[in-house]
Each structure stands twice: as structure tokens, then as C-alpha cells.
Specification:
By secondary structure, the chain is mostly beta strands. The chain is built from no helices and 9 strands. The strands form 3 sheets. It has a 5-stranded antiparallel β-sheet with strand order 3-4-5-6-9, with no helix packed on it. Strand 3 and strand 4 form a beta hairpin. It is elongated and about 65 Å long.
Amino acid sequence: MLQRIELVEGMAGQTFSSTNFYFEDGWTVTGGVGHKFNDKLGASLSVTWDKGVSTGWDTLTDTWSFGGGVAYDFTDKFQLRAGGAAIYFTDGDKDKIANALDYTATSDNEWGYALSLSGSLKF
């Protein structure tokens, strides 16, 4: 697990800057299903849970992602694909303070969305 990054200056070998992350181990679990309905149409659905790595020093908490997509072969040379996803971010608190210049923060639950449309033409 990532705990610390140091940026070292190349010529003298001195530490230029360093950052402590204090992350804990994270996990990602994904499941999905796809189905080809016929020679032209196929679709898929998926769900993903990602365990956040926050220990109170940041707001990197759990996320849930729900996705789906379809693909349609118009001909053997042209395919059109469309997909979408909804991502749920759980709330988190940064409540640890390292010094007087540090801050606290709260991140509420929220949703994010993504859409995709693509095609391929073979020649």
C-alpha cells in the first residue's frame, strides 16, 4: 500500500519534497454479464464496488459504479457502440490535522455520470 512519496533532486540526491498519504489497503470487486442476442446485437451490464483507502487524512471513500452498454453490427464492416455509467461516491471526512495550516473537509454522497458513443468502420 502506498504510504509516502519522496521527490529527490537528481544531482545532489537531496529530498526536494515528500508527501505522506496514510492510505489503508483498498479493494475493488467487479461483476458483470454480457449477452449476444443475435448476430447483430449484444449488450452488457456491470457493477463495481471500490473500497476507499481513507484513514481520515483525505476523503477517498467507497464508490459504487453501475454500467451498461450495447453494440450493434449494421454490417460486417460497421459497428456502433453505446454505453453509460452511474457512479455513486459515499460521504467522507478529512478530520485529521497535521499542523496549524492543515484543514478539515467533508464530502457528501454524490453521483457522477458518463456516456459513450463510438463506432468502428473496417476497410
